[in-house]
């Protein structure tokens, strides 16, 4: 199936984007998806080597993709000059295709958390920081990690983080522990972008106490304690690390933007990143649906004399999955478009909706795909269980769904005074009409 | 709240449409919503008068609306010349506003089934038919009914209908019974558009056996047997009738388009009508959400020391309702836009999705709004239970959800061969890569 | 189908109860269900007569039922001497059968709110009150209403009620308004059991400020303002009234149990009543499932060449409905059994579960049954929409589901300290085992 | 919390069972749960050793448990003489407690698939088979596997299996491949119970073509191809194997019960096994709920100034989880009780309900528990994700939910003729009553 752009955004997608999408789709379907299992097989299963080797096929994919101009597609033209010049909406559509394959995003230098980290450096980094870290990241030479979450705090609220930063002369001294530092286990990870609580402003504005610091991997005092698993997957070689900082010292110049400006930085980082995650998830759902359809039409798997696809329940799963996916896509594209027209802050509500709805919906689609595969669905023979596990974490990452729902509920509830006033006016007009038409306003009920 | 157009369709809405939407919104909020209860109170509760009187306030509303140019907004500019010149997408946004009030659609001559009937006459009627029926309908002088559904057949599949039509000389003779003939009880209903099974082609193409015939109300042999209720509502003065035809004779010239072309006609009729129903339902959901928010912020209804809106469960209902409504809107607008770019047939999938998703989602939102009102929610003091009942029927009208899901599932499943072929190619490429990288393709699993 | 008692309660049902159940089932299936439509038809549709006549068929049914000993079955043997001597569990099974028909409960003098009111009088009334009100109620000569809910208060919390009661000499003076006073519109309703806020203890214990007063219908100052509708149903002749009290005076001897003891009374009233409502709802669900099965096997309603029952989606609806119903039954019977073994207070949790789960589950079953009937399902031709509406109110009556969920959540959360202590002990033992088996407790993760 | 037996089964649980349950609970809470992580840590992570070592702590647990008489509790007294003498209902309650810990079932020699295999041998094995395999299994000296599922067949319908068995003289020759052979990777697994398709009866009764054969592990021609993973978990040392049979020869005396009697054997095997799985799942859900409650009351995890447990959404999760668990328990116990009163065949419907409802419900509870733990929930720090993955497979094992739903739907739909007849009788009686009361049966609608 050639990739289909929804009617409603036809006018918003340039010809160049359409051409690029076709190239991406071809590359993903013919190179990346077939490469996924090779990539997996090239990761050592020996505990001592597991986090030290890197699958050679990835470098080959990267070379091929870059040669076709499929590189750094994510930096939106509205807000950055270093990228490929697409809008968030256009890149959203591309990200969906990337989401079909485990290796696709990285092959085009579009994988998290590097994308968000490059955005941070491009937007907030000074020239030296850009030269040292942004350039090799854009070049795909190194990788990076973003260290925010903490094990013993409700760190989805950044005000709760405990990683301590103090200033000693020209140095910053960091102490604390982070976890779920995705990518920090990767042998090529060269820099950590660390969210700290600094001593500045502790008695005043709680939104000005966070600072973002660049810590080179291998800095003395940093210990990668262990990789965390997602359901049973360790996601090697990328991984999700628990990392300890004991009196880790870096120069003050490693501060991004300035002390106390951490909140500002992560707010700017989150919007497009959420769009990317959502659209990749949708791509995963499309792939799950493809697998489901292929499976239920397997002529060797007839039950009760029929192809599985002839059973009404399965038919309705297929239809519901199609609806779920197409709904999600519109929701995300609308958010991306609002970022393009304004910025991420203006699109807060739309981004939050996508963040809440897409992962849970895609998990449902994948769960149905798993179920349609029977025992095959939960094991390594299909990418379904793994995709499920990965996308399940998106209901937690950057704050659990419930926090976003509560916030959105509070904002929407902010309309109360206005609504009540409107109702009162309508009530007054209603009373007027009852009088005009000579009806007893009470008795008619 | 000023009506907000989603980012993604900003470019698709003309300034004239925006201006009209503002006028519609003002009229609905200040005239129609306050009028809803008066309209209700003006309907007699005496059984002998209930279906004979008509609420005078409606004619006043119609005059006011027409004076502001708010009239016949529904006929899309792409496909009709008689209308107000808006696209399906633009009118969709307007229909949402109309959906907030029971009296709004009719006040602007935009209410079902007249809208669909006018589309049929405009598209398929001959000049005489247009003069006799379309003109007074467009003028709001008469109303009409569409008679399709039958009590003792699975009539969501039009091939199953039994209303018999035979030709005798220059006359058509109709025999049979229809039910759920919405509007046929209305004292101003002047014409029935009746779907019949003619004797033509009975042995051949099952899609060429249906004919559409215009039957003036009051034609001898027509008996309105009884009004049907929806949950407990009879929806007077409009109503839903069971109507018997006993040797009803009309001239052959009352055939629309020609014998055996009924399928063609209803196919063309359904698309935009479903968009209208969906968008009006979304307007009802918005009103339900308004009521919910107003209620849970009522300072006299504290429980356990808090405003009801401060309870987390209610907060999440408000957020989920906002998400549900905004998702539905995008789904419908995307379908409307596809109709505008192509036609209803091209947008079959998108229309079906909207038809399936919107009513069930809006019912959920309204059910939550009811629940938030406690006992008030189910009774006549709020329009919530009534809106619920009305929209509940949309899950059945024009075929139950399950029929549409089955059809959509079958269509989507049609991709099977293509997917399987793609998977085979990927499998071949995978095998090639395993060889190239010297990995045993079996052992790695 | 002969009524089937779940395996798990086989030993808990006496032979006498089994015999009675058989008689009830026969009476309900052959007398009550056929009578339901006659009962409905005998209620006048003229507004002026609607609340003044009473369907003659009911008295005939009552005579027949009583002649067979099917009378006052609800008063449980454990707690009352006046009843038929069954346990709550046994009567629960009987109530399920009653729930299949609109007329069944009343025909055996087992209908709400009389049942709860008789329990109150039997348990808390003095001899004079019993003679005046309990005897004719037990005799089926009069009916009664329970006036608790108020329109402008969150009255699911009885502490919020506003109906004011003051003492003047030997008289009580009542002022205020109640609504949803079910049965108060009935021409045979002779007494209101009114929950008031008395002036006693207003500064101290908020649970000792409520009093229950007996007010004879027709007492000067009482005005039945209007009947409330449930969805569109007015439930005549029973009805749900809004009732105003203006300086209504009754003798002090009309107080039940004593001033300030209202809370105590309603607490005792609610348990078994909730069991009855739940079990009747289950009976309604069984009837809904019967209708669904009959409909989808109608040979005249084939779609796509198959009986509707041959479609997989419908098959799964039937199965899910069976599961839902059987699950609900076990939940309610377990609660009933706990009341029998102890009392309603001990069974608080079990009753609350049933109260929360059963109505929502039965609404789901009935909604599916409606959907399976297409347009027939929402109208007067089947009892489905009406049963849905009635049971929908049970999610609100006696407090909305959400209040019960919050309370149950709080109680269950009360286990926190105990669980945390258990986890700490297990953690200590785990550390011990790690030492014993010489494993580094940290590194293994 | 002392283990609480539902009211409804109080009379069905002997004092001896209660005493045993107390001992089991104490052993599980103080020995098994703390041992779970040690057991895990004792499994080698080196690929070459992973399936060859066995955690020493298990043997210690087994010794301790057996010393307390906690051994072979599963063989029900009604149907077997070798067991501990409890009913299925009593053992069900015990199995729930076992389900709280990964190591508990095996420590008391009550773990699948050995339990089902021992039932097969006890019920259908001849004396020699019992001596060779049942005795050491009952003694906990060896383990066993049950080989049924096949990769390339819809093997949930046993008629579809392809493993070929032919007779050559006194030998049986097996060819084919099985997968999801749980336990076949275990170094102590000594015997495979293999479901084959024999050449007998191939042209006649399709239910008489299956045979069950005992194949000692290590028989020439048997190759364990690979372990399958469940989500990311390999469940070592137990594991789920793909196993190839190439001309595997065993004596004819290794046939169980006789050629062509395989269907009969698995039918008898499944009932109690499903009860065990369900009850263990319920125990897992209880443990998940415990974790959830502990987590949301952690004073270090306040959000928005409140304990997480003070948020309404979480409160409702806790309540809904309690309801879900208690409902499931009643459903399973009712099925167990019916097996006790009759046999597994008589309890087909009740067992199927439990099989369908419990795994999906427990997955929901565990998913909420995971969500309440944030990122901690999906990783190795809590047993939640692992329990989720394990129980997720129960929606597939022994046939996917949808197959059971379809079957149950078909059975329930079998009541159609009876219902239709009942409705016709009621319709006749209704017509009679309309005449008797002189009402026009049509006009009243």
Automatic annotation (TrEMBL), chains A, B, C, D:
All residue ranges annotated as the Acyl-CoA dehydrogenase/oxidase C-terminal domain in the record: 260-411
Entry's Gene Ontology molecular function annotations: acyl-CoA dehydrogenase activity; flavin adenine dinucleotide binding
InterPro entries xref list: Acyl-CoA_dehydrogenase, Acyl-CoA_Oxase/DH_mid-dom, Acyl-CoA_Oxase/DH_mid-dom_sf, AcylCo_DH-like_C, AcylCo_DH/oxidase_C, AcylCoA_DH/ox_N, AcylCoA_DH/ox_N_sf, AcylCoA_DH/oxidase_NM_dom_sf
Keywords: FAD, Flavoprotein, Oxidoreductase
Domain Acyl-CoA dehydrogenase/oxidase N-terminal: residue ranges: 18-141
Single Gene Ontology BP annotation: fatty acid beta-oxidation using acyl-CoA dehydrogenase
Residue intervals of the Acyl-CoA oxidase/dehydrogenase middle domain: 145-248
GO cellular component, as recorded: cytoplasm
Entry keyword Lipid metabolism: no
Pfam family name, one: Acyl-CoA_dh_N
Co-factor(s): FAD
Assembly with partners or alone: Homodimer.
Membership in a protein family: Belongs to the acyl-CoA dehydrogenase family.
Protein name per UniProt: Acyl-CoA dehydrogenase
Species lineage: Eukaryota, Fungi, Dikarya, Ascomycota, Pezizomycotina
């Amino acid at each position: 199936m050639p990739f289909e752009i929804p009617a409603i955004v036809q006018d918003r997608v340039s010809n160049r984007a359409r051409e690029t999408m076709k190239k991406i789709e071809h590359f993903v379907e013919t190179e990346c998806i077939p490469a996924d299992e090779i990539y997996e097989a090239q990761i050592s299963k020996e505990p001592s080597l597991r986090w030290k080797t890197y699958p050679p096929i990835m470098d080959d994919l990267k070379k091929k993709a870059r040669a076709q101009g499929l590189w750094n597609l994510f930096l939106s033209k509205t807000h950055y000059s270093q990228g490929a010049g697409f809008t968030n909406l256009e890149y959203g559509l591309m990200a969906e295709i990337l989401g079909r394959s485990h290796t696709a995003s990285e092959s085009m230098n579009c994988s998290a958390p590097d994308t968000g980290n490059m955005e941070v450096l491009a937007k907030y980094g000074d020239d030296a920081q850009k030269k040292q870290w942004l350039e090799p990241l854009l070049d795909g030479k190194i990788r990076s990690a973003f260290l925010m979450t903490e094990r013993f705090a409700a760190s989805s609220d950044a005000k709760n983080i405990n990683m301590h930063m103090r200033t000693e002369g020209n140095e910053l001294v960091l102490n604390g522990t982070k976890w779920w530092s995705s990518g920090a286990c990767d042998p090529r990870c060269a820099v950590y972008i660390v969210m700290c609580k600094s001593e500045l402003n502790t008695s005043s504005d709680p939104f000005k106490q966070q600072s973002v610091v660049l810590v080179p991997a291998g800095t003395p005092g940093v210990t990668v304690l262990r990789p965390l698993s997602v359901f049973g997957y360790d996601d090697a070689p990328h991984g999700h690390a628990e990392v300890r900082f004991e009196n880790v010292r870096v120069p003050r110049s490693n501060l991004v933007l300035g002390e106390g400006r951490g909140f500002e930085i992560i707010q700017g980082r989150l919007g497009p990143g959420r769009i990317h995650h959502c659209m990749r998830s949708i791509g995963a759902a499309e792939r799950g649906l493809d697998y489901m359809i292929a499976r239920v039409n397997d002529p060797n798997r007839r039950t009760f004399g029929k192809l599985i696809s002839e059973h009404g329940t399965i038919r309705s799963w297929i239809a519901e999955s199609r609806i779920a996916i197409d709904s999600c896509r519109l929701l995300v594209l609308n958010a991306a478009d609002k970022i393009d027209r304004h910025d991420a802050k203006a699109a807060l509500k739309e981004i939050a909706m996508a963040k809440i709805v897409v992962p849970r919906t895609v998990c449902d689609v994948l769960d149905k795909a798993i179920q349609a595969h029977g025992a095959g669905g939960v094991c390594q023979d299909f990418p379904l269980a793994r995709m499920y596990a990965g996308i399940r974490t998106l209901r937690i990452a950057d704050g659990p769904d419930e926090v976003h729902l509560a916030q959105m509920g509070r904002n929407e509830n902010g309309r109360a005074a206005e609504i009540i006033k409107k109702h009162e006016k309508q009530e007054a007009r209603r009373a007027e009409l009852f009088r005009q038409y000579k009806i007893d306003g009470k008795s008619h009920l």
